[in-house]
Amino acid sequence: MPDPLDLGLVTSVDARGVWVDVGPDRLFCSVRGRFYETPGDQRRPIAPGDRVRVLRTSAGEGAVEEILPRRTKLSRPAGHTGRQEQVIAANVDQMAIVAATAKPRLRPGLVDRLIVAAVTQGIEPFVVLNKIDLGISGEVEEVRGVFASLGYAVILTSAVERIGIAVLAARLAGRITVFAGHSGVGKSSLLNAIDPGFDLRTGAVSDATSRGRHVTTRASLLRLPGDAYAVDTPGVRAFGLWDLGPGDLQAFFSEFPPLAERCRFRDCRHDREPACAVRAAAEAGEVSPRRYASYLRILASLTEAAGD
Ligand code: GDP
Ligand code: ZN
């Protein structure tokens, strides 16, 4: 007997139900209460990016019968204590960290921070340097070189002159990608360059079942050509390092741990400790001094948050 359930991908969630892509179709599906919230501490509300099994009930409609286990989740603190978590999107494969080469000025420190945020959540980061039509400065070249030497893919783009768009589109194919970066760097312009058909600004999911536009209460997945999905940009603040302790940070600056074996103290935080091999390497230029400064800034913010 054939399996009566279809495999689908949740693209957006609201109080009445969820939108699920099943192959080329988009179904509006009902969801049982227990999928919105489970008792006890472990809230596991259904989220965009969840893979589900659905039962088709009528044309364009269905019911979610099962949520498959999540591979990753992008979440932020929620609730009045900030100790609950809101899942922004499930199963995000990668984070496109978008920065502008100019206008606004390149802010590589934010890229460092977003790399940490991505890696701590099990999401693979890559860097997009947009607006190269405005020129590529020495600083941009240097930043590009440092990230590339750390093993992160760096894609140079111009949304207005359509440079690097095919490379970016190929990178998105078949995956769920969250776009992160300051407003004004060109995230929507890049998505529009990849798929001129979609209207990111309205935040509306195009609606195949003529239910009219619905207002999303949280992030949605936007469908792009090549079976690619982008998580619409929830804002930079969503990518906080809220569950990271200060001592854990260095693991996410991948050039540090090999050096840290030579620090005098096992638990060296590479701040002001004597005989710190990481600081020495930064002073000698073996580690990017800019990356090291960025590490210290993030460390200070985590130390403050941890109250130690
Ligand atoms: P977002 O806030 O990151 O989504 O940025 P937008 O896509 O809204 O772009 C912000 C501004 O930068 C708009 O005025 C765009 O026209 C402009 N912009 C976006 N991409 C490029 C680019 O590649 N080159 C140039 N020169 N301007 C761009
Ligand atoms: Zn050290």
What spatial form do the alpha-carbon principal axes imply? globular
Q: Give the rounded overall mean pLDDT.
A: 87
Individual helix count: 8
**Biggest β-sheet strands, sense, barrel:** 6 strands, mixed
In short:
This protein has 308 residues and is α/β, with parallel strands linked by helices.
Write up this protein:
- There is one protein chain.
- This protein has 308 residues and is an alpha/beta fold.
- It contains 8 helices and 13 strands.
- The strands form 3 sheets. It has a 6-stranded mixed sheet with strand order 10-9-8-11-13-12, sandwiched between helices. Strands 1-2-3-5-4 form a 5-stranded mixed β-barrel.
- The longest helix has 18 residues, at 289-306.
- The N and C termini lie far apart (61 Å).
- 37% of the residues are buried.
- Residues 38-42 and 201-217 have low confidence and may be disordered.
- Bound molecules: guanosine-5'-diphosphate and zinc ion (ZN).
- Zinc ion (ZN) is lined by residues 260, 263, 268, 270, 273, 276-278.
- Guanosine-5'-diphosphate is lined by residues 130-131, 133-134, 158-160, 183-189.
